Amino acid sequence: MLGTKGNPAGGMDALRADRSWHPLDPLFRPGVVAVVDSGGDPGGLAGAYLQSLVSRPFVGEVYAVSPAPALVRGMRTYRRVGEVPEPIDLAIITGRATAVPELVGECVDAGVKTAVIAATGIWAGSPEGLELARWIEVEVRQGGMRVIGPNSFGVMNPYSGLNATPSAMMARPGSVAFLSQSAGMCQAILDWSLRERVGLSALVSVGSMVDVGWGDLIDYLGSDPETRSIVIDLETLGDARRFAEAASRVALSKPILVLKSGREGERGPVEGGWEVPWSEDEVLDCLLSRCGVLRVHRLSELFAMAEVLGKQAWPRGPRLAILTNAAGPGRIAADALREGGGELARLSAETVAALDSLLPARWSRTNPVDVLDDADPERVGRAAELVAADPGVDGVLVILTPSGMADPTCVASRVRRLGASEKPILASWMGGVGVLAGTELLNRAGITTFSHPDTAARAFCSMWRSRRNRERLCEGGSSIGSWDEAGGPEHAPVVRSLRVTGRSVLDEAEARALLAAYGLPSVPTFARDLEEAVRRAGELGYPVRLKPLTKEPLGESWRLGGELEDDEALRSAYEALQRRVAREAGAGSFLGVSVWPVWDRRGVELAVSSHVDPVYGPVLSFGLGGGLGRIYGDRALGLPPLSLAEARRMIGETRVGRALLEGVGVGAVDVGEIERFLVRFSRLVEEQRWIRRIEVDPLVAEGNRLMALGVRVESWDGKVPEDERPSPVLGRGWPERG
């Protein structure tokens, strides 16, 4: 036994009194730690963990548990967990993988609160590893102990002095929490943070996540006073719904950044002739943005963004003003800004006039603002203040090159006055040793510095995306507004009857009845015999078109027939369709016809669909329909439930949608009708979990009218139990909105 009883906050009892108790408190701020090993090799993994614990400023008690002699010289070793004389907050389990379930069971029986399973070889994809993981999960669930791992590198909390890792290095205290599944990444980030003097509030290697996952850790760190931002190196998502729930709540107050490796390619056709044209990676992007999480694609961006989001004001829009003493770096930054989705701010006439009175006549008179290479500190600082005050500017990037005549430190001393601005102020002091003092002054003033101007511009774009994602969380209103009286099983007896059809693909009449139950426009009317077809055509008004109804969906060769001008033409066409279906599909296959109006060919063909993903549940797609949609792949993804604002955002993320919103190159279309269609469609797939795939293509938008011309619905195979069908990853009603 080593160390002094209690932790820096005065023990777990004091921690409970200081703030609300959380089940993971014993993991990050334990008072008693035990290293539990099955092998007893003094030079092995258990010895490394013990050495890290006793060599650091951890104020607590450390015990060794092993059937072998002492793991650390001079340290008493207990043979079993139950022999340890005090309640254990945290157990670190090492040794043979096959012995881990038994050790976990001993910890549960002894009342251990949390554990890190550092033993490797579990959940490696082998049947043996999966079986071991199942045993661990059973033990943990029965006993209530929370577990990190298996295959975990460990946990580090610089504020409590806890180094429950085999590393001899200890992170500096800071405000960034770093989480990763990779032990190697944790070690690399720890080394990098020490070299760059970046402080961490926590470092966690989650391993295979048999118990504690991303959602649990986000939830804990969201209430941790030392953590200002959370950085996640993501390999697999695990419990997507739990992640989304926690991230949506925490991202409102703390930035969450994700680096996802292993970007996947496009998915190809799947069974049944359906095609899922998006990749799982695209769906992850959609989920992260809905949860307010910022995704970065470069390791170099990860901590720079964590730092800038943690201490800078967030931009209210995408408009950046660039101020530079050299035109070249300004152009480089402007190019990176546009590539990242940002915009060059348009300076007001008042700002240009004020700059005219300050700068030499040969200044650029536009954004980027070139203050010229002979600018002194006062000129740079005053110009930056004028630009920052412009209401059309959402952020400012100040670039200083060594070629200028002004001393970099003196310029920094003047520019740092902008550190209290309500807009983000970024700086790129280009150079080497000569700019170090200036960058240090700026960083201390809360102005984040970058070595390269294009990196700074990309950082601003990421800040704007992060702000926009957070705004999505704060948008009030439910997905179904007061305007919507349609939808729901209570309005649709057909929904209940479809569950027992015994077929996986619905016929056209059933599919359209399903749409109608949710207030979605079902253009054709159905007729089961000739006289009913004549009556329906009279109600719609000639000319009309006919399409046969059959037991099984018809192939591509069965398109809508030609225009029929009167009852006589309709009777003749009806009888011809009846004979053809009997000849090609068999007697008894003909069930009647659908009667279609003739629409204006100036209408825009759209496509709306939903496919159930095994991880994310129903995934919605909107975009260009018909043959052109399949060629150009113009689509946007969404996840139910949708609000009207989310529906409009999906529309605006496609080229055809932007054309509709701006009225460019298309006829006048009521985009509000498309929004309402998407919201109702979202509700349909969210509530009707028996639907595996549903597609409306083409959906013709013509003025203020929508026409679902092609509909296909496929249900889950009856062999798949309802509780095993993926549910929507986003829950209705969270996060809580003020």
Number of helices in the DSSP assignment: 24
End-to-end gap:
50 Å
What is the fold-level CATH name, i.e. the topology of the domain at 313-474?
Rossmann fold
For this entry, what is the oligomeric state of its chains?
Answer: single chain
Word description of this protein:
It is a single chain. Helix 11 links the parallel strand 14 and strand 15. The protein is flat. The protein has about 750 residues and is of the alpha/beta class. The longest helix has 22 residues. The strands form five sheets. A seven-stranded mixed β-sheet has the order 8-7-10-9-11-12-13, with helices on both faces. It has a six-stranded parallel β-sheet with strand order 3-2-1-4-5-6, with helices on both faces. Among the domains are: about 150 residues, 3-Layer(aba) Sandwich (Rossmann fold); about 160 residues, Succinyl-CoA synthetase domains (Rossmann fold, 3-Layer(aba) Sandwich); about 70 residues, ATP-grasp fold, A domain (Dna Ligase, domain 1), CATH 3.30.1490.20; about 110 residues, D-amino Acid Aminotransferase, Chain A, domain 1 (2-Layer Sandwich). It is built from 24 helices and 28 strands. Helices cover about 35% and strands about 20% of the residues.
